[in-house]
Design goal:
With 700 residues, the chain is α+β, with helices and mostly antiparallel strands. 17% of the residues lie in helices and 34% in strands. It has an eight-stranded mixed β-sheet, with helices on both faces. A four-stranded antiparallel β-sheet has the order 3-4-5-6, with no helix packed on it. Helix 2 crosses helix 11.
Length: 700
Amino acid sequence: MRAFVPRLLAVSLFVACGAHAATSQAPSTPKRMVSETLAGQPVNDPYRWLENPEAADVKQWIDAQNAYTEATIGAMPLGKALSARVRELAITSTTRSSPTLAGGTLFYFENTPPQAQPLLVAKAWPDGPTRTLVDPNQGDGSTAITEYWPSPSGRYLAYGTAEGGSELTTIHILDTTTGKALPDLLPLAGGGTTPQALAWDADEKGVTYARFETPAAGQALREFDAVLAHHTIGEAATKDRTVFGKGYSHVAEYILLEGKGGTSTALLANEGDGGPAEVYLRQGKGEFKRVLGREADVRSAAWVGDRLIVVAFDDAPRGRLVAVGADGKRSDVLAQGDGAIQRVSAMGDGFLVVRSAGPDWWADQYDAKATLIRRVPLPATGITIGGVASEAGQNKALLSYGGWTTPTRWAEYDGASGTLKTVFEVKPAADYSKVKVSRIDGVSKDGTKIPVTVISMDGITPNGKRPTILYSYGGFGLPVTPGFVGANLAWLERGGVLAYANIRGGNEFGEAWHEQGQKQRKQNVFDDFYAASQALIDTKWTDRGHLGILGGSNGGLLMGAALTQHPEQYRAVVGAVGIYDVPRHETAFANGPYNVSEYGSTTDPVIAKAMLAYSPLHNVRAGTKYPAVLLTTGANDPRVAPWQSRKFAAALQDASTSGQPVLLLTRMNAGHGIGAPFSQRVGNAALQLTFFATELGLGE
C-alpha cells in the first residue's frame, strides 16, 4: 500500500458538467451467492462474480455504473463553476519536488501546470543553469517517471517509467553530460507490490536493483519473490545476476542506500509493508551481510560519513539513532527525544533530524558527536518538511517544505551560521492570506486525544451547520501532514470548511501510534476518526446533515468502516481505491499478502474475527439509511483490486433505504493514482468537490 492517496486524490477521473440528466436509480446487480466459513463464522458473498474484469457481464456492469455516475454528477448544479475554479487554482507557477544532491549536481522534478507530467532536470548546485534530462510529456501523458537515482559523481542517471497507472517499472540510464540515453533497459524493476530500489557501484559501471523474475513464455507476471540483481552497463538485462533475495521472502521489499561514493551499500529488507526491516551491509561488490534483525525495529536509515545511522524503535516509541558497523557492532548515537523521528540526513560532519508531533514538524541539526547545534529556523507550526538534499562534508543543505497556506518552498540552510535563505517558491494562483487554521481535539473511545486541524476562510465561524469535509488515512505508518490548500480554496471561498485528523495508524507521534492502529487493534483507527468527526459537531463547526468524509487507499477502508459503523453520522462519503472486503484482499489479490504485516492474516483466528467485525462489505445491513456515497477506482490499480469498489458499491446500492445516491466510477486507463497526469488530478478534485457541494449544501 505504501504510497497513500493525497488529499486531492490523484486518481484518473473526470467531472461531467451538465451533459446528462440524472437517472433516478442505480443499475441493478444480480446476486450469485458464494458461501464460506472464516474463523468459525459463515461468510456469504453474493457479488464475487464482479471480481472478474474480463467477463462480458462485468464489463457491461462497469459501463452501466459509469453512465449512472456521469449522469448523476453531470446534473449537479455547481459542477461547471467548481471545475473551472479548480483548474484555475491548479495552474500555479512552476513547481519542484524530490531534490537530490550527487557530486555537486542537484537533481529534481519540475512541472509547469498544465503540463501533464513533471520533467526530470539537473543543475550544478547552487547557481548553475537548469538542464532538462527527461521529458515524459509525449502522447497522452500517461507515461510517468516513477523514481530516479543519480550515480555518485552525478555523471549518470538511472530513472524508472511506468504506463497507464500500472506502476510496473522499466529502468532507463542516461549520460547526464551528453543528455543521451544508454541502450540499457531494465524491465520488471518493481512497482506496485514491491517498491523500486537501486544503488550504483562506486566505479559507476553497474547498478544493483530490485526486480521480479521474468515469466516463462505464455505465463503472466507474478509480482512476488522480488530479488536484487546486478546489471553491468552496456550488457543485456538478460545477463543480470541475482545478488540477494533468492528465497528471502515471498513478499520481499527492499530499500538500497549508497554510502559515500558508492563504496558501501546498505540494504533495508522487509517482508511486506508496515513492518520493521532487517539491515544488511555490503562493502564494494561483495556480499550483503546481515547486521541487524527485526528486533531492533528499524524503519529508516541514512549514511553519515562512513557510518550507517539507523532509526530504531526498540524500547523507543519515538525513535532513537544507532550507528551500525560492517561487523554488526552497534553504538548508540542519539537517545529518544521529543517528537517522532521521521528521517535523518547527513550534513557537514554531522546530521539533520526531522521530527513530528501530530501536525507539527521541525528539524534539528547535530554535530558529529550528536550534540544539538540548533533547531532549523523554519515556521514552528502549520508546515511539513519534505525532501532534504544534502551531502556529507557540506555545511549547506536544501530543505523542501510547505504548509496549509504555504505552497512548496526550497530553503538553503547554512549549518555554520544557522541562516535559512529561500531559493525557490511556488507562486500560487490566488491569495491564501485569508485562510484561517485552528485546532481542536477529539477524544477516542479509549480516552486517546486526536488532533484535528480545521481550515476555513477568515470570518467563517462555527454556526453548527458549515458544509465540512473531514479527511484522514490511518495506516502503514503514513502521517497526515500539513499540505497546501491549493485547489481546495474553491471549497473554502464558498463558505466550506476542511478538517484533517491525526488518527492512529500513522506515525505522527511515533511507532507506537502506528502500532496501535494495526492488526487486531485496527478498530482504534475507526474510533479515532469517529471522535474527530464528533469533535467537529461538538465545537459547532457542523452537524450530521452537513458533514462529509474523504479518504483513499487504506483511507478508503477507513471510509467504508466509518459509514457502516456510523451511517447516521455523515451526510456524504467519498472513498477512492479503497479496501472494503478485507479478508478477501489477502487471498485474492497480489498486493494483499504484502499487507499482512499491517492488517494481519486470516490464518490467525483472532485476526480473522477482528477483520470480519470491521470489514465494510461484511457489515452492510439491508434497510439502513446510508449517506450519499461516491466510490472511485482505476482498472489498472496494482495496490487495491478494482473489484473491491465494485462489490461494495453493489452491496450499498442494494441495502440503502435513504434515497441518497451510491455512485461508482471506474477509470479504465488509470491505477492507484501514482503518476496521474495533470488533467486527471484536476478532474478528480473537481469531481469530489462537486459531489460534496451538492450533498452538503455548499453555497452558490
